[in-house]
Amino acid sequence: MAAVAGAHGITGEVRLKLFAASPESLKAHASFEVGGRTLTLRSVRPGQQGAVARFAEIADRTAAEALRGQLLTVPRSSLPPLGPGEYYWHDLLGLSVEDEGGAPVGTVVSVENFGASDILEIERTDGRRVMVPLIPAAVLDVGETIRVERAFVDAG
Length: 156
Known about the structure:
Layout: E1 2-8, E2 13-18, H1 23-26, E3 31-34, E4 37-47, E5 50-55, H2 61-65, E6 71-73, H3 89-92, E7 96-99, E8 104-113, E9 118-124, E10 129-133, E11 139-142, E12 146-148, H4 150-154
Parallel strand pairs: 7-12
Antiparallel strand pairs: 1-2, 1-6, 2-5, 3-4, 3-6, 4-5, 7-8, 8-9, 9-10, 11-12
């Protein structure tokens, strides 16, 4: 759902890099798994480049800084159902990628969004990595495998 980017202030709030649609998406969950422990969400609000959250168990800046880099996760069963053509980023990781003719291209190793669109990072069969925008011109189909336009993976 998010990653802790660092502390915000001195009272234990944390800055979050969101993987969810908005800070409001986090409010649907009472708690999160973070670094092997459960944290109870007290509040969340929009912040620069993400959100700012407060957890009941985090009382000061030192504890907040200790969470830096940790992922906030929830059980899959607590996520809303997906509509046709929708996906969760996590579902794309590890999927095989092939070109429009069915030839193997590689495997999805990461999904990012730097503001314009989602981007698939694909480790090609030759070991090199290429980033492909998750747009209809580049990604032809997302299912059990991902089909991409060959020109987008050869450009990398």
